[in-house]
Design a protein that fits this description.
It is a single chain. The chain has 188 residues and is mainly β. Helix content is 0%, strand content 53%. The protein folds into three domains: 2-62, SH3 type barrels (Roll); 65-125, Nucleic acid-binding proteins (OB fold (Dihydrolipoamide Acetyltransferase, E2P)), CATH 2.40.50.140; 130-186, OB fold (Dihydrolipoamide Acetyltransferase, E2P). It has strands spanning 2-3, 12-15, 18-28, 36-43, 49-55, 59-62, 65-75, 80-84, 90-93, 109-115, 120-125, 129-137, 150-155, 160-164, 172-176, 181-186. β15 (172-176) and β16 form a beta hairpin.
């Protein structure tokens, strides 16, 4: 058992007979009345985000979860296959459990969140940024960099990203997974 004082981002709690992860929380102490905690909770199974307010000091059940390092191997008709980095055990994961499956590249390291009590897979978390190679982009014109103009580029996994004009085919770029936005060009 934990109280609202133990809330932190990423904490998995049991709420309404389901598992939720705390995405955001804020302790509020109004001038009149008791303190409370405003939260945004993400349902682990459905991915739906809800707002909820807890009275300060309320006890909640914390779910025991483990984060285990895995490496993505391949995908087939059934789903995605991952290998544990320490035990080399291979597991099968269905697509709806993975946050952004379009960013998975063979050999990429990920963290798989597993409910420790039932040993079920809750989610597959990719790194915040991934490095992708540009397979196609229109060539940029010389001297056309005075404005903040963007062009569309296709990456090795088929993702279309808006990039600056100086990015060419064969360049490696860093992309933020959650927003699918270009961050920077990677040298080397």
């Amino acid at each position: 058992m934990a109280t609202t004082a133990d809330f932190r981002n990423g904490l998995v709690i049991e709420f309404n007979n389901d598992l939720y992860v705390i995405v955001q929380f804020q302790h509020v102490k109004p001038g009149k009345g008791p303190a409370f905690v405003r939260t945004k909770l993400k349902n682990i199974k459905t991915g739906r985000v809800i707002d909820n307010t807890f009275n300060s000091g309320v006890k909640v059940n914390v779910a025991r979860v483990e984060r285990r390092p895995y490496q993505y191997l391949y995908k087939d008709d059934i789903g995605y296959y991952f290998m544990h980095l320490e035990t080399f055990e291979q597991i099968h994961v269905e697509e709806h459990v993975i946050d952004y499956p379009e960013f998975l590249l063979e050999g990429q390291n990920v963290e798989i969140v597993i409910h420790a009590d039932t040993d079920t897979i809750l989610s597959v978390e990719l790194p915040q940024f991934v490095t992708l190679e540009v397979t196609y982009s229109e060539p940029g014109l010389r001297g056309d960099t005075a404005t903040n103009t963007l062009k569309q580029a296709t990456t090795e996994n088929g993702l279309k990203v808006m990039v600056p004009l100086f990015v060419n085919t064969g360049d490696k770029i860093r992309v933020e997974v959650s927003s699918k936005a270009y961050i920077e060009r990677v040298k080397g």
